Amino acid sequence: MDDELAALAEAHGVATHYEDANQRRADVDPDVVVAVLAQLDVDASTPEAVRRALAAPKAPPSTVVLREGDVLEEPGTVELEDGGRVELPAALPLGYHRLGSRTVIVAPRALPPVPRSWGWMLQLYAMRSAGSWGMGDYADLATLARRSAEELGAGVLLVNPVQAVSPTLPVERSPYSPSSRRFANPLYLRISDIPAYRDVDEATRAEIDALRPPGDTELIDYDAVWTAKAKALELLWRHVEHREPEGELLGFARFCALAEAHGPDWREWPPEQRDPATATADPERVAFHAWLQELCEQQLAAAREAARDAGMPVGVVHDLPVGVHPGGADTWAVRDAFAADVTVGAPPDAFSRLGQDWGLPPWRPDRLAEQGYEPFRAVVRSVLRHADGIRIDHVAGLWRLWWIPPGEPPQRGTYVHYDPDAMLAVLTLEAHRAGAVVMGEDLGTVEPKVTEALHEHGMLSSAVLWFQREYDLPDHPLIPPEKWTTSAMASISTHDLPTVAGFLAAEHVRVRAELGRFEGPVDGEYEAAERERGELLELVQQEGVAADDPVTAFHAVLAKARSVLVLTSPQDALGELRQPNLPGTTDEYPNWRIPLPVALDELFTDEGVRRVAGVLAAGRTTRSGSR
């Protein structure tokens, strides 16, 4: 790597080398660095261009980050968020303030301790009930919260992302590829809980009831559910007073109205509609989509209230995906904050030897700073409007993201760095104001400083039984749960990994072999799975847990974790073989479409579920730990 190009890359947070999954140095090809710099509007195409860019005057930092009690040691007058003014030097109150053209973020040093609890990791779409239409909905979330607390002693519900997708067919199935992270998904609305449904005449109500799709399909049919609900909502809309939306909601509702007419990807719309400044949308449809968001907020608030009324010490935690669809509502409305032609993913590792491309555009770190991190603030605030907590998917993305330049395969990318102090300050401040907990998904190849910073600021990291190993020791022995970190949300598995029953039966190997996902001999994969299963069963024995019921036994081991939160999924408790999502596949596997094998009411009477809930609840009351 040329020294001048390396210096220019460092100045803009673009990595010229990194540590790979085997902890070895990996050098980035110079042309990849040049391509990534171009996405930040930095010309490095020739040596002369590199020298010009290095010689250009550097703009002063546009965002200043302080923690509560810090003194801003420079002259000037700060305009406070509440309209007041403070002469510097001084310590400033919590908030987002202005010092000339700069934003000053003042955040708490740490969030308060998280109550010890156990709870569910929910794939909400999979919960089908007597009142839902072919898939789980927001009312099911309220029922789960209330009954899990009252009947099973649960204290927290972690929900899959319920952010908005485009109101078009086919419906986006993956909850991790939303059109917007600032708004909610009307697909999860409970039609019979809408005020207008109760107010309409019997004939209209009967017409709506007749639209209900079957609830016993083998896989969840998102298109059928949305088609039925959209028709029902249109019928109810005729009986609702129409109001014109304002602010961010207006922009989002305009996108939805335009998507109905031109498709889900604004990059393929007519030229005049691609720019919010020149786009024109039917005011009636704009008002309709704004109304759907009002309904989502009402029903999400009801679910949160159900958790509180039932005495859940933590409550409902919502999941924040790492990004948005490149042609969705967020990139249409705030496109200058995104590197629109880049996608993010991961470099090669043992699980994905060619790397991963998630197809999501990243924030531009320079634009975030210039805008006082307002785009990120809006996303976090929107989730916490109806949540008691937030889980940050791929939390290492607050530090760095793997950028893949246009036209390149996943392995031909590099890391671009963000300002973690600013990102964490926004998270801490917004969570403090909402009285919410923060969890970070720090699994995989993650730098130790990520986990350390989460704990320093009162946030939880992730601990998964499959991965709790001493990687610095030979053969990577499993770590006993009593030695897991306290500041964590602990679980046996995740939605991207085998369920307990699936792991025990090597279902994850069978499925991947059937789909041709292995490069080497399948026998070796079965042998590795058998070896891991033996190690885990040995851990069960070491912990003095009876192994006659392996599913309950694994949960009994989890219950011993020092971690403040222990979570499991209904799929794990029920002994479901299939995992919700198989990474690296799309239509080859029924990702995000697998319903629970029992209806929601039956979940609470299932003997296996009650055994699992019993051991987890007992583990929360018999142990205590310190951070």
Number of strands: 21
* Main sheet makeup: 8 strands, parallel
Measured as a percent range, the helix fraction is 25-40%
- Taking all Cα atoms into account, the compactness measure Rg is 25 Å
Q: Can you give the mean pLDDT?
A: 95
Low-confidence stretches are: none
Number of helices: 21
Shape category: globular
Which band does the percent of strand residues land in? 5-15%
Structural class: alpha/beta
Distance between the termini: 44 Å
- Order of the strands making up the biggest sheet: 18-15-12-11-10-21-20-19
Give a verbal description of the structure:
The chain is α/β, with parallel strands linked by helices and 627 residues long. Helices cover 37% and strands 14% of the residues. The protein contains 21 helices and 21 strands. The strands form 6 sheets. Strands 18-15-12-11-10-21-20-19 form an 8-stranded parallel β-sheet. Helix 17 (522-542) crosses helix 18 (550-559). The mean pLDDT is 95.
